[in-house]
């Protein structure tokens, strides 16, 4: 039973780290938009 609990905690930690990493990436994108692109529209699709 302890192994199952450990696996659940491990998966929970991965989810928390993933959300933290995604938030840091989003903040980085907002920083680039404000500082580099000056709130301009950037077409990242490439079409």
Summary of the model, kept short:
Helices cover 72% and strands 0% of the residues. The mean pLDDT is 78.
Please characterize this protein's 3D structure:
The radius of gyration is 18 Å and the shape is elongated. It contains one helix and no strands. The chain has one helix at residues 2-35. It is an all-alpha fold and 47 residues long.
Considering the chains and any ligands shown, give keywords for the structure.
mainly alpha; about 45 residues; about 0% strand
List low-pLDDT spans: none
- The general outline is elongated
Mean pLDDT equals 78
Radius of gyration: 18 Å
Termini, distance in Å?
53 Å
Assembly type: single chain
Proportion of strand residues: under 5%
Q: What is the chain-wise order of helices and strands?
A: H
Largest sheet: none
Total E-strand runs: 0
Q: Which structural category do the helix and sheet elements fall into?
A: mainly alpha
Topology record:
Elements lengths: L1 H34 L12
């Amino acid at each position: 039973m302890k192994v199952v609990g450990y696996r659940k905690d491990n998966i929970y930690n991965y989810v928390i780290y993933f959300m933290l990493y995604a938030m840091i990436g989003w903040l980085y994108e907002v920083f680039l938009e404000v500082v580099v692109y000056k709130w301009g529209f950037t077409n990242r699709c490439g079409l």
